[in-house]
Design brief:
Oligomer: heterodimer
Largest sheet of chain A: none
Mean pLDDT of chain B: 87
CATH class of the largest domain in chain B: Alpha Beta
Number of helices of chain B: 10
CATH topology of chain A: MetI-like fold
Number of strands of chain A: 0
Number of helices of chain A: 9
CATH superfamily of chain A: MetI-like
Number of strands of chain B: 10
Radius of gyration of chain A: 21 Å
CATH class of chain A: Mainly Alpha
Strand order of the largest sheet of chain B: 8-7-9-6-10
Largest interface: A-B, 16 and 14 residues
Order of helices and strands of chain B: HHEEEHEHEHEEHEHEHEHH
Strand content of chain A: under 5%
Number of domains of chain A: 1
Shape of chain B: elongated
Structural class of chain A: mainly alpha
Radius of gyration of chain B: 21 Å
Structural class of chain B: alpha/beta
Shape of chain A: globular
Chain lengths: 223, 272
């Protein structure tokens, strides 16, 4: 017995698939940048902020890291309208991804900041820099460098997690795949193609991260 | 090209043979009202896995809309109802082999089935409808373009709605009915495509007057099925259904289980 694979109907839907890839890319890249900024802010608050702010960040991180992403996205899409905030599926998806990756990245970056030796901070202070300047100019870069591999693998995971947004009808790659397979009954073929696309996207992001690593973090450090 | 015997053909053939061979022998296979009255029991087949039409209640007994109708029918004939649980695939064989006298089993009236069984006038029906915010004005499919429409991906609702919606309609496809309903309730979509049992569930929890039914996309009616040749019994069943319709009892039972009024029950034309 052999399975007949029909890729024709899948390839016919290339416009839809391309639109799905584009949305997946936008959501992933957007969430990476915004999530990184959010995480840097939260990590700073967690280490140096006032007590209530530290407490708030802890609550945020623990809640997000201990609940499923699907529940978070349902909460944002179906729950927030009750509080008067109605987001489109795409905006809700982006917000959910930012909130999610922000929490994970907060912990990663906090670890990075703590790895920077105290001597460097003191050197910065001795030069007359204020606390925030020390953080921005002295601490941040080596901190990010230290946790860069963990951070990028979190971002790749984020891109793969974005497939869940089809649950709130955002038309990302997975959503398009579901639509195509339900219309053409070529589920096996569609998912083969989509798996390859996700793999290609992951590899592309990895290559991009490697390039950033070479440009930004390639400086010698004293050991 | 050889025509292969399908399982369905085999079943139907077996069922017909058994019916022919055993019809005279089996006491269960009552053909007339008099036989049933003499026996004092009406054997009725019904589904128990099709809520809210056929369910199993907490006592493990068949229940639901169909069960209520079956009990009323037996009472009308002045006999006891013996409810027999059947399944979708085996319900017609159960009837044709005389295991039951009739089916009150959410059997949609179709031309193909009418070749095998005798249908009563319709006693129930479900519709796939366009349902949404009362403020949305949808008089014809063209109007859908003005609103955001939610459906469960790949469902009958999705297929029928996509078929009539004009190009450019913002159709949002969710993973299941529950998500589409949630989207309607939270205002993320204005309108959904849904089957009437789902609409009944929504009306139980939604504020009164918030939503209403706009269009009917597709409908099917259910008939009580008998064996061909039970003419006298069929007449009695039809009389019962008409009486229940006229008195409003049928609608009351439908409301009890589906929380919505009976749709219009037109006997479909069974040409061909």
């Amino acid at each position: 017995m052999s399975i007949q694979l029909r890729f024709g109907p899948v390839l016919d839907a290339w416009r839809e698939l391309a639109a799905g890839i584009w949305l997946t890319l936008q959501l992933s890249a957007g969430a990476m940048v915004l999530g990184l900024l959010l995480a840097i802010g939260c990590a700073w608050l967690k280490l140096y902020g006032p007590r209530p702010a530290r407490f708030a960040v802890n609550v945020y991180v623990e809640v997000v890291r201990n609940t499923p992403f699907l529940v978070q996205i349902f909460f944002i899409f179906f729950g927030l309208p009750a509080a008067g905030l109605r987001l489109s599926p795409d905006a809700a998806a982006l917000l959910a991804l930012v909130v999610n990756v922000g929490a994970y990245a907060t912990e990663i970056i906090r670890a990075g900041i703590e790895s920077v030796s105290h001597g460097q901070v003191e050197a910065g202070l001795a030069l007359g820099l204020r606390r925030l300047q020390v953080f921005r100019l002295v601490v941040l870069k080596p901190a990010l460098r230290a946790v860069y591999p963990a951070l990028t693998s979190q971002f790749i995971l984020l891109m793969l997690t974005s497939s869940v947004v089809s649950a709130i009808s955002a038309n990302d790659l997975t959503s398009v795949a579901n639509n195509v397979q339900s219309r053409t009954f070529t589920s096996f073929e569609v998912y083969i193609v989509v798996t390859l696309i996700y793999l290609a996207l992951s590899l592309a992001f990895s290559a991009l991260f490697a390039a950033i690593d070479r440009r930004v973090f390639a400086y010698p450090v004293a050991r | 090209m050889t025509r292969h015997l399908t399982r369905r053909d085999t079943l139907a053939g077996l069922a017909a043979l058994t019916a022919l061979g055993l019809a005279g022998l089996r006491p269960a296979a009552a053909q007339t009202v008099d036989e049933i009255k003499k026996r004092g029991v009406l054997n009725i087949g019904l589904l128990v896995d099709f809520p809210p039409f056929g369910i199993t209640n907490l006592q493990g007994q068949p229940d639901g809309f169909d069960a209520d109708i079956a009990k009323d029918l037996a009472k009308d004939l002045g006999v006891r109802a013996n409810l027999v649980a059947v399944t979708g695939p085996n319900r017609i064989p159960y009837l044709l082999t005389g295991q039951v006298d009739m089916l009150v089993a959410s059997l949609a009236i179709t031309a193909e089935r009418a070749k095998q069984v005798a249908f009563s006038v319709p006693y129930a029906g479900i519709r796939i409808v366009v349902y949404g915010k009362t403020s949305a004005v949808v008089k014809e499919p063209e109007d859908l373009k003005k609103y955001t429409v939610g459906v469960a991906r790949t469902s009958t609702q999705d297929v029928s709605l996509s078929a009539i919606a004009p190009a450019g309609t913002n159709i949002r496809r969710f993973d299941d009915d529950a998500s589409a309903v949630q989207a309607l309730l939270s205002g993320q979509v204005d309108i959904i495509g849904a089957a009437t049992p789902v609409v009944g569930e929504i009306e139980k929890i939604a504020p009164k007057g918030a939503f209403d039914t706009k269009l009917t996309l597709r409908e099917q009616v259910h008939g009580i099925a008998l064996r061909p040749g039970q003419d006298d019994l069929l007449k009695a069943v039809n009389a019962f259904v008409e009486k229940q319709k006229a008195s409003g009892a049928l609608n009351a039972t439908f409301r009890k289980w589906l929380n919505t009024d009976l749709p219009e029950l037109k006997t479909p034309a069974l040409g061909g």
